[in-house]
User: What shape does this take?
Amino acid sequence: MGKTYAELEIGDRFITPGRTITEGDVFLFAGLTGDYNPIHTNRTFAEVTDFGECIAHGSLGIGVAFGLLSRIDLIDGTVIALLGLKWNFHAPVRFGDTVHVVAEVTNKRPVKHEDRGIVELDLKIPNQEGVLTHSGSATVLLRRERPAAAGWGKAAKSSAA
Assistant: This one.
């Protein structure tokens, strides 16, 4: 279960495990989104571009960032909404690159509803060589307390005999 608004402090820093981006990831993402831009899906085309090869979709990197954050239980089950996102692309993510996320709490503030608060996260995504590929900030609305019915990882009792 993720951290609550009350458990996070400005300056808290979190580092996710890495994830290697594969050609399969890119093709699945293209199929899901309908974005078949040849820079992502056509080797012959991509070889004559400035990149010299196919690269991952920028928006795939954003999705992977939030997936990696879920692996460290930062906001899973405690986030109510993603309120805003600002994003920058610095370097391409190539097939075979392993990326991870460095997240830092940069701001937090209460809202009129006492059961929640807003947290701003600074996100950086370096690759295996330490090259910054993406950076951005995310503003999320978080619960102040875990839901009473939350049972991440707990076995449910059964009345069946």
